[in-house]
Write a structure and sequence with these properties.
There is one protein chain. By secondary structure, the chain is of the alpha/beta class. The protein folds into 2 domains: 102 residues, NAD(P)-binding Rossmann-like Domain (Rossmann fold, 3-Layer(aba) Sandwich), CATH 3.40.50.720; 179 residues, Dihydrodipicolinate Reductase, domain 2. It is built from 11 helices and 14 strands. The protein has a 9-stranded mixed sheet with strand order 13-12-11-10-6-9-8-7-14. The chain has a 3-stranded parallel sheet with strand order 3-4-5, sandwiched between helices. The two termini are 29 Å apart. The relative contact order is 0.15.
Length: 328
């Protein structure tokens, strides 16, 4: 375990403990006090020196949950030490930094997998089946939303999640990454441009309310919404096309389709959710065991950083940003 900074670090530790092919043998943290406490909970030795941990022959892979701004230095060190890498999104804050990481991963031949969990959920698999059938026609609008009330009142988000340097942003880069990579998935690629707007409802250094609009060739649009100040906002997906529409989470976790090219025709039909694909951690372990690589996962992760970098730049200049202007 490399750091317990991220709120999901405990979740990944449990996945590692519960998976029959893995066990946690050591821990490091950029905050030694926190690291020692968490290592003690796991019953493993704590290393104050990262290189010392990475030199251990019994460490095959690392779970990286550091502040996002130090992902590059930590992952480059891990790759050079020949350690497989599982990491919380985003891979890095800029495409340039992502490419630095990916170059070392490629050179070392280690397996890299990002935690992009909603790619593999049953609703996503079912939605992709509908889109592949052509029942919605040409896709014209994708709307994806994920919010919670973690900044409302006393709030439950840790204070370091408002640290602009460590996080590279707020609601969009933390929560909005999930709607962002789903929008990219449903449209089948990157947009021409990104236009974003950030709100600061609670006055934090980073945004707690955010919207990004992705413009695609041919007039298609994707709207990505995220927030830390919306207590009851459901996770929502809408996909609209020239022939029909699809809704998920409005507000219940049901999938509805209406299209003359689909069963049910001119009425809304509820579709069963597909079986969930193996989660990213399971896939990572399988890749290590089989000597394969998570090419699609990593490609989507790189595109996610490109979209986030464009969104941040759009807010900085108060104008749309062409995606091809975001380069290494």
């Amino acid at each position: 375990m490399l750091s317990f900074w991220h709120v999901h670090a405990g979740d990944y530790a449990r996945q590692a403990q519960q998976h029959p092919g893995t066990q946690i043998v050591a821990a490091w943290d950029e905050d030694p006090d926190r690291g020692r406490v968490e290592a003690d909970k796991l019953g493993v030795p704590f290393h104050e020196n990262l290189d010392e941990l990475l030199a251990r022959p019994d460490v095959d892979g690392v779970i990286v949950d550091t502040p996002t701004n130090i992902h590059p230095e930590v992952m480059v060190a891990a790759a050079r030490a020949g350690k497989h890498i599982f990491t919380e999104k985003v891979l890095a804050l800029t495409v340039r930094e992502c490419n630095e990481i990916l170059a070392e991963v490629e050179k070392s031949g280690v397996a890299l997998t990002l935690s992009l969990p909603r790619l593999y959920d049953g609703y996503t698999v079912a939605i992709q089946d509908v889109l592949a059938s052509g029942a919605l026609g040409e896709i014209t609008l994708v709307r994806t939303r994920l919010s919670h009330g973690g900044s409302v009142g006393e709030g439950w988000l840790p204070e370091h999640f408002y640290n602009a340097e460590q996080c590279g942003g707020g609601a969009l880069v933390d929560l909005g990454c999930h709607p962002m990579y789903l929008a990219r998935l449903f449209f089948g690629g990157l947009p021409e441009s990104v236009s974003a707007s950030y709100g600061h409802v609670t006055g934090r250094a980073v945004e707690d309310n955010a919207v990004a609009v992705l413009r695609y060739p041919g007039g298609g649009l994707a709207v990505v919404e995220a927030g830390f100040v919306n207590t009851y906002s459901p996770f929502t997906i809408e996909v609209h096309g020239t022939l029909g529409s699809l809704l998920y989470g409005t507000p219940e976790g049901t999938l509805l389709v209406r299209s003359p090219a689909h069963e049910g025709g001119e009425r809304w039909v509820e579709l069963p959710l597909a079986e969930r694909k193996p989660m990213a951690f399971e896939q990572w372990v399988t890749h290590i065991q089989n000597g394969t690589r998570a090419h699609e996962n990593v490609e989507i992760g790189l595109d996610l950083t490109r979209l986030m970098e464009a969104a941040n730049h759009s807010v900085a200049i108060d104008a749309p940003v062409r995606i091809d202007s975001i380069s290494a």
